[in-house]
Design goal:
By secondary structure, this protein is an all-alpha fold. Helix content is about 75%, strand content about 0%. A two-stranded antiparallel sheet has the order 1-2. The protein starts with a helix and ends in a 7-residue tail after the last helix. Keywords: Cell membrane, Membrane, Transmembrane, Transmembrane helix, Transport. It is a multi-pass membrane protein. InterPro entries: ABC_transporter_permease (IPR051393), MetI-like (IPR000515), MetI-like_sf (IPR035906).
Length: about 300
């Protein structure tokens, strides 16, 4: 009995030893910075001088900050436009590829490849494509009779939507793989029974596929919303927040405030407001999922 307890204790210690590096990394690089930034959000500090306690001043300042309002609006636009389109295209691609068409692996790879391609490479390619004067996109538009095509990344009206287009193109493959996994878990008996009852393909999609896929859809909606608020690298590489503030989203504004204006306390307050917005949206999603998600 004692030997068994000693062996159990030893196995636990070995398990904790394997977990220790990950736990230390989590505490050092995630927990501590999160707590430090929360404390910093109540201070006024430029990274060099003394830290001054500011109370709720940083949060009050956000209310009247026009730059913050623009960034918040741009983030909401990106979420509202990119998330539904990305998920819709991913579902359509997954349904099409789930039919067992010829060259299935090639199509899957082609759609998923942008997601694993280095962002710097994606940005360089799309900068060339979106070039207003020499880019192939505007070249095609001129060839079909459009004399004044959009300026894309160089236009204050089109820059944000250009980034959204690249974001959708880059992320469709990731969500497609999730939907494919969900589709392959739906019993084929359901479709066979529906065909016997005379249900068409569209009816099967609405009555069987989407309800059975609803847990995956719920998960991808939450992840899509969170990821839409986290878009930074593409904006940094493609536009650097410009032209003007047309592509200033919250996460880029946080970076700009902290590392260009050296207002670390104010940037921390912005980060926690963004965190609160994401948590609120997620809570609403979890409350609403009881009405439409079928487990």
């Amino acid at each position: 009995m004692q030997a068994s307890r000693a062996l159990t204790r030893r196995n636990r210690l070995v398990g904790y030893a394997f977990l220790l590096p990950n736990i230390l990394g989590f505490l050092t690089f995630i927990c501590f910075p999160v707590m430090a930034s929360f404390v910093m959000s109540f201070t006024d500090w430029n990274g060099f001088g003394d830290i001054t306690f500011a109370g709720l001043d940083n949060y009050k300042r956000l209310i009247g900050d026009e730059s913050f309002r623009i960034s918040l609006l741009n983030s909401i636009v990106m979420m509202v436009v990119s998330v539904p389109l990305t998920l819709l295209l991913a579902i359509l691609a997954a349904v099409a590829l789930n039919k067992g068409i010829k060259g299935l692996k090639i199509f899957r790879t082609a759609i998923f490849l942008p997601h694993i391609t280095a962002t710097i490479a994606v940005a360089v390619v799309w900068q060339l494509l979106f070039n207003p004067t020499m880019g192939p996109i505007n070249g095609i538009l001129r060839s079909v009779g459009i004399e004044n095509p959009p300026g894309w990344l160089a236009s204050t009206q089109w820059a944000l939507f250009s980034v959204i287009i690249v974001t959708i193109w880059q992320n469709v493959g990731y969500y497609m793989v999730l939907y494919l996994a969900g589709l392959q878990g739906i019993p084929k008996d359901l479709y066979e029974a529906a065909e016997i009852d005379g249900a068409g393909k569209l009816s099967q999609l609405i009555k069987i596929t989407i309800p059975m896929l609803s847990p995956v859809i719920f998960f991808t909606i939450i992840m899509g919303i969170i990821n839409s608020f986290k878009v930074f690298d593409l904006i940094f590489l493609l536009t650097k927040g410009g032209p003007g503030r047309s592509t200033h989203v919250l996460v880029y504004d946080i970076y700009y405030t902290a590392f260009q204006r050296y207002e670390y306390g104010y940037a921390s307050a912005m980060a926690y407001v963004m965190f609160a917005i994401i948590v609120l949206i997620t809570i609403i999603q979890f409350r609403g999922q009881k009405k439409w998600v079928n487990y």
